[in-house]
């Protein structure tokens, strides 16, 4: 309603004013009316927007692709494990162990997770447009995800948490098998995961870095003092020889 009134402002001005308004005012009113009309149409389009997904919007497949895309985009570290012969009670027990560590354990439907990976650069990975745009794209993680797979997702990159997760996997009695990890857009194999988990806590890393800086700072100070002392000695020694030479010349 408001946009309709605004669009009619130029004509209303011409009808109501006793004298024709200046052309500059009419141009401004027409421009404002056009802007209001564009905003109104944009708002209407946003309100009427409907996702064009491959599967129905309320389907389980669309829900899972959306969920997987969220994990991929918002979790800086993901550890992938193969799960073998997990009973429902086993799955819940393992899930609780990971929850105590502060990470999430999600059993994957691998084919749908691969869709989310492949289309993750698109605003709507579950859409028909994303499927057409990224058809044939192969994500580096695809070869890792074969068979029954689950992902352990982290809110932050914490080596101590990673170590605890690996401990749970190794103590699972063969029910879980470490496959690899995805960190900072890079695929890590099992050995590289072992390196990262042994880096220590963030506080330990900071402490170690400060220790190195202190050593370097101390070494730099010692070198500076040593250099200054050596320079002073050479200067004094040179001056001594110079004075000695002058005395010999006077004696002659």
From TrEMBL:
CC annotations in GO: ribonucleoprotein complex; ribosome
Q: Pfam families recorded for this chain?
A: Ribosomal_L10 (PF00466)
Q: Which domain of life is it from?
A: Eukaryota
Q: InterPro entries given for it?
A: Ribosomal_uL10 (IPR001790), Ribosomal_uL10-like_sf (IPR043141), Ribosomal_uL10_bac_type (IPR047865)
Q: Which UniProt keywords apply?
A: Ribonucleoprotein, Ribosomal protein
Q: What does the sequence similarity comment in the record state about its family?
A: Belongs to the universal ribosomal protein uL10 family.
Q: Known PANTHER family for this protein? A: 39S RIBOSOMAL PROTEIN L10, MITOCHONDRIAL
What this protein is called in its record is Ribosomal protein L10
Q: Which organism is it from?
A: Lipomyces starkeyi NRRL Y-11557
């Amino acid at each position: 309603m408001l946009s309709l009134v605004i669009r009619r402002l130029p004509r209303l001005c011409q009808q109501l004013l006793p004298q024709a308004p200046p052309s500059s005012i009419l141009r401004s009113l027409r421009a404002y009316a056009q802007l209001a009309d564009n905003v109104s149409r944009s708002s209407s389009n946003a309100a009427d927007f409907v996702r064009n997904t491959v599967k129905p919007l309320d389907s389980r497949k669309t829900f899972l692709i959306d969920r997987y895309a969220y994990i991929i985009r918002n979790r800086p570290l993901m550890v992938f494990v193969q799960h073998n012969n997990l009973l429902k009670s086993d799955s819940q027990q393992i899930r609780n162990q990971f929850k105590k560590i502060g990470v999430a354990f999600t059993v994957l439907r691998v084919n749908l997770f691969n869709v989310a990976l492949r289309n993750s650069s698109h605003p709507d990975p579950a859409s028909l447009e994303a499927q057409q745009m990224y058809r044939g794209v192969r994500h580096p993680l695809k070869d890792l995800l074969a068979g029954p797979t689950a992902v352990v997702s982290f809110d932050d990159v914490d080596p101590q948490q990673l170590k605890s997760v690996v401990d749970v996997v190794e103590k699972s009695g063969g029910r879980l098998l470490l496959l690899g990890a995805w960190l900072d857009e890079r695929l890590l194999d099992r050995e590289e995961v072992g390196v990262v988990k042994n880096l220590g806590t963030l506080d330990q890393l900071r402490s170690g870095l400060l220790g190195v800086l202190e050593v370097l700072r101390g070494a730099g100070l010692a070198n500076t003092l040593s250099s200054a002392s050596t320079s002073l000695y050479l200067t004094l020694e040179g001056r001594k020889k110079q004075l000695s030479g002058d005395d010999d010349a006077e004696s002659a």
